[in-house]
Amino acid sequence: MPPYAILSHTWRPDEVTFADLGSSGLEWQQKEGYQKIRFCAEQAKRHGLHHFWVDTCCIDKSNAIELQTAINSMFWWYCDANRCYVYMADVSHASTSNEQETAPWWTSFQKSRWFTRDWTLQELIAPKVVEFHSKDGTFLGDKLSLEYTLRDITGIPAKALRSTPLSEFTVTERESWARNRRAKYEEDMAYSLLGVFNDETRRKGDFEKRFKKRLAKQRLCHDLDAKRLVQELDGLPLALATAGAYLTRVSMKLTDYLRHYGTSWERLHKSTPSLGSYKDRTLCSTWQISYQQIEKQFPLAARLLRFWAYFDNQDLWFELIKCKNDGGPTWLRQLGDELVFNEAIGTLHDYGFVESCAKSLSACESQGYSIHSCLHSWTKHALNEGQDASLDRLTLECVASCVMQQLIDGVPNKDDASQALRLKRRLLSHAKISFARNQDRIEDSDQPILHALGQLYTSHELLDDAENMYSLAVRGCERTYGPDHVNTFTFLARLGITFGLQCRMKEAEDTLLRALCGQEQLLDTKHPFLVGRFEEAKNIYLEIPEKPMRKPGPEHNTAMFAALDLRWLYHIQNQFRKAEAMFRLALGGFEAMLGPNHKQTLGLVSRLGHLCMEQDLADKAEPLLARALRGYEEMIEPTGFAQSREALAAVADMGMLRLSQGQRREARGYLRRAHDSYMTLLGPDHARTRQTQTVLRELEWLSVFD
């Protein structure tokens, strides 16, 4: 079989069929489905592959024998392909003018129909290389770079996504991967899972061979005790792997290991009679032997394994543990030393308990580690008898501390922003598990934890979860500090913006106004916001646009951001005058706190100028953009200017303003400067680069008539 590529997609009504390819005409090239075939051909050519396979047109469905053969072989066709291209017809890479922390395609990718179909499960698991592309052919990532995301969307562990033999996963685990998928016909669900559940047939004996190979190194492959041990472990891959790892690390005769195994089995039978499955007893017995040895050799490694029961089994890393070592128990502070943590992980790895996750995309990100879900279940029910509330709480604090540390560090550039987003994806599953175990014990003083989780959920557009966090925080603040405290208003603002993201505009406006009114009441008891008269307040701020806020302080800070939140809410509803009023209110606060030429102040000036341009208010926009440009040029070196998105946005906006004023030559100069810097900073495919390039082309065409 020559090397080939294969296509994964969801079927649409207008697909190219096997019969179409055999017809004399070329009308089938006008079908919508032909675009997928062209896409697959182009990608295969790009990777030097001369053959590709598409299920819509490569199976003669009128031939019952061929169709049945294809169904039975589908898993292996995908498994043996050099590359699998996923064509996501409902995901667009097109960006918007607003810069988001997440990629513009992110939301539609998470909600794609591709993740809900029956056949695409094996098409995700089987191939070694799976690439995801939007409907316009843009590469979005592959199984490696999107591993955390795919794991969270599908519930499939990272180990399975890395083409680990499926025989290492229980039938129950594999059934859970298909639980939320849908099929057009009921029998299709069974057909689509043939390869997923029959994988061990092709790999039969693989683990026994590996186990015997390991014993061969110790010249025990013909030992009767070795054969007996394989029989005792019933050929179970996890049990064989654990026993093999133990025998590699510990100098022990097989007869002694069999004796330990029998003792462990009997002890387990007495202590856990509810563990009825022979397979479960076999696994737990081997794990218990290895765990007792780890306790003797390196107690901190055993302690880490016990603590792991309170996290997700996928992707535990050093910084997640380190974040909460100040004031924690002694053993956790010791694990907060990276050398000690790595030694503990190394010990667990040597005994077959831990595996490395995919390599990090950034040198700044720490390596992650995972344990098998069956082993994780054993750590919860055998190593931790009953639920330890203190460890539950400690886990939640570790997750929240990791999020809060990221909020403190900030994201100064594009690479850091991408890294921050990946970190949030890594944290999400741990956050959900730890909060679920602690939700009945949340206290009024837990606002920092709720704030961190609210931020995390908002960044993943899990808005119901974010709303729950901020609502709990508001109630806690009201009970602790009262309804008119700055902390209460801070969380009200967060809750209001969450309502806005949920398109609950009336609740959003009411909540944000309550937050802003409260802040203004703290600053000035005579201010019209005191009585909630928004229109009167708006007129005051429009009449005195440069009115500064009063003495900077914590109330001051929250009022500024409440105003910015209201500005966003009004902007997306095209209520530009209200948005402008809130912009000016926030700008006054930034000027008072940070100064008129601070980078953040200049960013607001530039955005306010852009807002005025949207309203065709060139006379208001021009002085604002000119002020922003002057400030950036004074505050930033030329090389830094070309690396600042905010500064380049002001340059591009000034170019568009000059174009609207008919000053083409000046417009061309500004836009060329912005375009060239965007090319270097963001690349040719970024929306901002393409937008400036399009306008420059139009200007070149118009210059013919100058």
UniProtKB/TrEMBL annotation:
Domain Heterokaryon incompatibility: 4-97
Superkingdom of source: Eukaryota
Pfam families found in the cross-reference section: HET, TPR_10, TPR_12
InterPro entries listed in its UniProt record: HET, TPR-like_helical_dom_sf
Protein's UniProt name: Kinesin light chain 1
Originating species: Beauveria brongniartii RCEF 3172
